[in-house]
Specification:
This protein is mainly α. Helices cover 57% and strands 6% of the residues. It has eight helices and three strands. A hairpin with a 4-residue loop joins strand 2 and strand 3. Helix 3 packs antiparallel against helix 4, helix 4 runs antiparallel to helix 6 and helix 6 runs antiparallel to helix 8. Pfam families: DUF679.
Length: 223
Amino acid sequence: MDIKVETPASQPTNGDAKTPLLASQKKSDSTTSTPQANQNSSIRHAIISTFKGTAYLANRLPTGIVLTFQLLSPILSNQGVCDTALKTMTAILLAVCGLACFVLSFTDSFKDAKGNVFYGFATFKGFYPIDRTVTISPEEAAKRKIGPFDFLQALLSMLVFVTIALLDQTIVNCFYPTPSVEMKEILSALPVANGVVCSVLFIAFPTQRHGIGLVVDSSKQES
């Protein structure tokens, strides 16, 4: 019996090949870009850079304080819809978290010869571990006592927390539900300016402390 073999349909030549739809769309989009689109792109890049900088600054704060604030702020502020009582509780939360950031800036940690991490508070006279059963050499305690830059670091930690609070829309809506035009400009510019200043000062005056809630430097060991 005869077997018939069907030949496939002729394929288009290179000259007849069509450009893919997505490629043509991208080309048309790039050719029809407007100054408004470029401006929106610049704004998006600025916002992304701001949040990246804020994420970096958040690493300078105790993790527990940041998590506590992020957990309680939506609850106490009722997602930004506050009455007098909720405003008072939200203000107390902000004050407690800010004070905690200030106080915890004077904490530090060290490792003993076995690699165990111990925390303590720095004072003007030296360093006192929280665990009273741990002993630290007088030389090591003297190196960890409070210095002039510790107060600067504590103040910067509070300012960083203020920046994070101002970037929280529920907090802003709680205290300024209907802000004026001038207040909107201040609330938009203040966190960015505050973040830039704190970043510069953190770089210019780095801290050597790794206190409660912060990363412990593995090179710090008690001899």
